[in-house]
Amino acid sequence: MSHPRSRLDGVIHAPVRLSIVAALAAVDSAEFKFVRETVEISDSALSKQVSTLEEAGYVRVRKSFAGRRPRTHLSLTPEGRAAFDRHVRALHDIASGATLPDPVPDGGEGAAGPA
């Protein structure tokens, strides 16, 4: 059995990228400004992180105009959504102690030691 950390996605695991992907996982599509405000980062920081996610195939970037104003819309690709789901399951398994050995049945301390 391998530790669940081996299932963590290196692209998504960075805190800002995890926040971006989590925000996008809750919607079909979101404007750049909405994601920027939700994640509380600058335009340039969001652009850089979105580029990394786009290169990995996890985020789709779509440009449009509302009148004369440019709009950038972000959405997770099916691959991005699947990667996020796997990453969250791995985090859950780590947090729940899924890899901890079973306690010794006779009430001993087991491999983890005293609580």
UniProtKB/TrEMBL annotation:
Residues 16-94 form the Winged helix DNA-binding domain. Residues 96-115 are annotated as: Disordered. It comes from the Bacteria. InterPro entries: WH-like_DNA-bd_sf, WH_DNA-bd_dom, WH_DNA-bd_sf. PANTHER family: BSL7504 PROTEIN. This is Winged helix-turn-helix domain-containing protein. It comes from Nocardiopsis mangrovi.
